[in-house]
Fold FadR family transcriptional regulator.
Amino acid sequence: MDSPKPNSKVFIEIVNRIREMISHDGLQPGDKIPSERELSERLKAGRSSIREALRALELLGLIETRRGEGTFLKDFRNHHLVELLGTFILKDGQAKGDVLLTKEWLEKESLRTILDTGISMEAIQDSLAAREFRTVDSFLRELIHHSGNLLAGKIWYILSQYGAMVEKAVLMDDEKMEECVGLVNCLLEKQEDEMWEFYYKLKT
């Protein structure tokens, strides 16, 4: 007779505890995670609950089981969680607009931070000169990183993945490159009005 499946509340709690354990132990992609039995003992949860949680994480592409070897942590950047959630979240027109507006708000706040603090732009100038940015978003991502707000950067990155399902990426051609250079120069010279003009040009 099969063991009863854990209820959703217990299931989610176990998934969260496994995630916290992976973070606490400092496990990296490719590292082996504890066995089902070890997890059951460590988390003080039933084997069936642990099994269901691991199965869910494997379906999401966060871990992989290798026959005869064990279970290993996969590179989170390669899993399709964003696409999976996006199929539900982005069905709603309001949600699509919210994603793009929130993404834009984070970009604007990062620009204001750089403008107010006078953060060095040398690295971004070098990247522009070397034509390292392939899209406008890759340039904006670097600006957000330069603002020093790591949390904003992480949220922006997730939103950009959703946003890619809504709007096509803007490639970095000569015109966009000039606009990026103009925006950076305005940041350096603290010309706020002109900075916003370049920003909105980049977004169109």
Notes: The chain has two domains: 8-78, 81-202.
